[in-house]
């Protein structure tokens, strides 16, 4: 698609209307109270990826209370960072924040860099987060493009094509950059995101209350429901997973996932994916042997939990098990521990394991 040509006058009107609307209508959000603190912008923008504002607020406040600045985050244990993040999902974000904080201390003397180019050298910081931090905290003329901005631009300019496709995404980045009023990028970017979050919503956009309604092509052609173009729905694979709560006297065994894996660094009950034609009980015993090198007796199934991830779904079956022989070894996991059930709350577990813990307790 060819990027729409925009006259200076049209760009100015677009920016002026949007900025005036934002000044009147922006929500009072905790990270906006000190919007020029790059650490706060970075943490909030990282949390806001893939997560709703209402969910983010308590996580943001807990995170800031526990790790108030880059140095505090850099010197924290990863286990503690993951514990604060527990339940927010997409744990790579937390691991990358921790790694990036260490790099900021080592390479930038503890000061978050201000340019998009330098920010993008840090783990977990892509074009969007770099643009957000550079523009909001440092006033740099850098655009942003997230789901909310994409939706507004696709509708306003009638950009057809799936927003995540390479061609359409390039067009949208160009538009976001062209529209940017020099010297006002921070407010402008936030205004565009705010419009997408509160007015130009995925369903039932409030066109009558929209500051850019007059020249919006989707509104004029009644295409709001058709734009942005939706990706064809894929059927997600569904796996059966069996895990054991393995008892040895009054203690139970937990294992830590490898950092490189999905949900890396989190603790879990030993187990794994069932193979074809394998019983659930056999799966728990086999996985425990392969992961930790111990023999167990598998007892009753006490919990069944369904859980969805971005690319697949699982049904998790939990069994009470009894340790029989062997000292655990971290063969297929990063670490292991025998712990008292009352201490389960001290460790970060994925959401599906937390549901099992709730039933266990
Ligand atoms: S007029 Fe409607 S569709 Fe167009 S940008 Fe505004 S809210 Fe979105």
Descriptive key words:
361 residues, alpha+beta, Endonuclease III, domain 1, Nucleoside Triphosphate Pyrophosphohydrolase, 2 domains, seven-stranded mixed sheet, 7 strands, elongated, binds iron/sulfur cluster
Notes on the protein architecture:
The chain is an alpha+beta fold and 361 residues long. It folds into two domains: 8-220, Hypothetical protein, domain 2 (Endonuclease III, domain 1); 238-360, Nucleoside Triphosphate Pyrophosphohydrolase, CATH 3.90.79.10. The protein has helices at residues 8-25, 38-48, 53-66, 70-74, 78-85, 92-108, 116-119, 127-137, 147-157, 166-179, 185-198, 217-220, 280-292, 351-360; strands at 238-248, 251-256, 267-268, 271-273, 295-308, 313-325, 335-339. Strands 1, 2, 3, 4, 5, 6 and 7 form a seven-stranded mixed beta sheet that branches. Helix 1 packs across helix 11 (185-198), helix 2 (38-48) packs antiparallel against helix 8 and helix 9 (147-157) crosses helix 10. The chain binds iron/sulfur cluster. Iron/sulfur cluster is lined by residues 152, 155-156, 199-200, 205-207, 210, 212-213, 216, 218-219, 224.
């Amino acid at each position: 698609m060819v990027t729409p040509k925009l006259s200076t006058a049209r760009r100015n009107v677009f920016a002026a209307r949007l900025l005036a609307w934002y000044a009147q209508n922006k929500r009072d959000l905790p990270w906006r109270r000190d919007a020029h603190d790059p650490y706060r912008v970075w943490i909030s923008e990282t949390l806001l990826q893939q997560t709703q504002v209402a969910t983010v607020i308590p996580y943001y406040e807990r995170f800031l209370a526990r790790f108030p600045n880059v140095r505090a985050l850099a010197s924290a244990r990863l286990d503690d960072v993951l514990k604060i993040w527990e339940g927010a999902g997409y744990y790579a974000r937390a691991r990358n924040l921790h790694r990036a904080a260490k790099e900021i201390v080592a390479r930038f003397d503890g000061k978050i860099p201000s340019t998009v180019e330098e920010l993008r050298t840090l783990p977990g910081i892509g074009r969007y987060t770099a643009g957000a931090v550079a523009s909001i905290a440092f006033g740099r003329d850098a655009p942003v493009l997230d789901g909310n901005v994409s939706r507004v631009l696709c509708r306003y300019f009638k950009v057809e094509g799936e927003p995540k496709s390479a061609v359409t995404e390039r067009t949208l980045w160009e538009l976001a950059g062209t529209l940017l009023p020099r010297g006002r990028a921070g407010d402008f970017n936030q205004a565009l995101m705010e419009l997408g979050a509160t007015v130009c919503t995925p369903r039932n956009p409030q066109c009558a209350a929209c500051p850019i309604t007059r020249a919006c092509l989707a509104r004029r052609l009644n295409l709001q429901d058709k734009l942005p173009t939706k990706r064809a729905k894929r059927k997600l694979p569904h796996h059966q997973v069996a895990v054991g709560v393995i008892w040895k006297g009054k203690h139970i065994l937990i294992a830590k996932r490898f950092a490189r894996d999905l949900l890396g660094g989190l603790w879990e009950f030993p187990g794994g994916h069932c193979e074809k034609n394998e019983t659930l009980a056999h799966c728990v015993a086999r996985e425990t042997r392969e992961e930790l090198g111990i023999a167990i007796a598998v007892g009753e199934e006490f919990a069944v939990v369904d859980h969805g991830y971005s690319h697949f779904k699982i049904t998790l079956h939990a069994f009470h098990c009894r340790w029989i022989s062997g000292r655990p070894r971290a063969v297929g996991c990063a670490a292991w521990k025998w712990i008292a059930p009352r201490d389960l709350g001290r460790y970060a577990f994925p959401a599906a394991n937390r549901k099992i813990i709730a039933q266990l307790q």
